[in-house]
């Protein structure tokens, strides 16, 4: 179980490095892993596993809402792809996370 939790933490670390996630958001995700991952067992490190974490029902809504603006030092959510319909529609909270993969 501890090995699995450590792999999930490593997954978050790699994702955080890849997306230049802020320290605060990285810490929030790491706390979530330590609190919940022992109940998930059976996943391995990969982009597809990270996608499963993002798309799954286990990630708290407040985490889904706070992490996107911290990806790539906030540059991803400022990208015109995501801001073009700002004010006209809401960007799904998982979209920036999935684009960051």
Q: Which structural traits does this protein have?
A:
101 residues, mainly alpha, 61% helix, elongated
Topology:
Elements: H1 2-19, H2 23-36, H3 47-55, H4 61-66, H5 75-78, H6 80-83, H7 94-100
Helix pairs in contact: 1-2
Task: Please describe what this structure looks like.
The structure is a single chain. This protein is mostly helical and 101 residues long. It is built from 7 helices and no strands. It has helices at residues 2-19, 23-36, 47-55, 61-66, 75-78, 80-83, 94-100. α1 (2-19) packs antiparallel against α2. The model has no long low-confidence stretch (mean pLDDT 86).
Quick summary:
The protein contains 7 helices and no strands.
The major β-sheet equals: none
Relative helix content: 55-70%
Oligomer status: single chain
What are the low-pLDDT stretches, counting only 5+ consecutive residues below 50? none
User: Whole-Å distance between the termini?
Assistant: 26 Å
Q: Give the overall silhouette.
A: elongated
Beta-strand share of residues = under 5%
